[in-house]
């Protein structure tokens, strides 16, 4: 793994400021269990998805609740912008969960190792993914179903618009032919409207 990949993963993908239910946020010798938490006899643990809030003065540990829509759940369909492309995964900033736009743009990561394409997606492409789980504070998604994949992309060479051609895409400006993991819905969304 390249150093840039490593930095990206450690700095941005592991969302240490987000806890999931059951996650340890403090030890009971140091903090009392506060709002949205419980203690298991040793640890104060989060009862919700949210951000931990440790009050050193009052020695209480609580968790600020997230609005339910902000953090997609397993099997939710999300649409977002590709924020980073790494050798075997992409990071996507989530804009829509189950068709509804969300304000807090959390990122999910999607393994692309098993996709046999020259490029699965490019940075700034709009992709449709399905959430498969939460692991170590990161949200994991898949792109490996027919309706999942790129919904909107541009030519890598000239930035021109592209049209699907068999299993590939072709630039309408410079005729460059390229590959993406296209969604079956490719071309069916009006993203000029969505992005305005
Ligand atoms: Zn082009």
What does this protein look like?
This protein has 196 residues and is mainly β. The protein has 2 domains: 47 residues, OB fold (Dihydrolipoamide Acetyltransferase, E2P) (Beta Barrel), CATH 2.40.50.100; 109 residues, Nucleic acid-binding proteins (OB fold (Dihydrolipoamide Acetyltransferase, E2P), Beta Barrel). The protein contains 2 helices and 16 strands. The strands form 4 sheets. A 5-stranded mixed barrel has the order 7-8-10-12-11. The chain has a 3-stranded antiparallel beta sheet with strand order 1-4-3, with no helix packed on it. The radius of gyration is 20 Å and the shape is elongated. The protein starts with a helix and ends with a helix. It binds zinc ion (ZN). The site of zinc ion has 8 residues, from loops.
């Amino acid at each position: 793994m390249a150093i840039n990949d490593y930095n990206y993963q450690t700095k941005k993908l592991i969302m240490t400021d987000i806890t999931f239910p059951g996650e340890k946020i403090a030890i009971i010798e140091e903090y009392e269990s506060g709002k949205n938490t419980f203690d298991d006899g040793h640890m104060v643990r989060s009862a919700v998805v949210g951000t931990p809030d440790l009050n050193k003065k009052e020695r209480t540990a609580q968790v600020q609740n997230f609005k339910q829509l902000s953090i997609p759940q397993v099997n939710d369909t999300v649409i977002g912008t590709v924020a980073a492309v790494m050798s075997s995964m992409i990071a996507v900033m989530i804009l829509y969960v189950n068709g509804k736009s969300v304000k807090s743009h959390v990122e999910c990561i999607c393994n692309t190792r098993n996709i046999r394409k020259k490029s699965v997606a490019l940075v700034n492409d709009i992709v449709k993914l399905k959430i498969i789980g939460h692991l170590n504070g990161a949200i994991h998604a898949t792109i490996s179903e027919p309706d999942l994949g790129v919904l909107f992309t541009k030519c890598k060479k000239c930035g021109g618009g592209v049209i699907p051609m068999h299993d590939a895409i072709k630039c309408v400006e410079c005729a460059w032919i390229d590959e993406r993991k296209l969604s079956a819905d490719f071309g069916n969304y009006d993203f000029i409207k969505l992005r305005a």
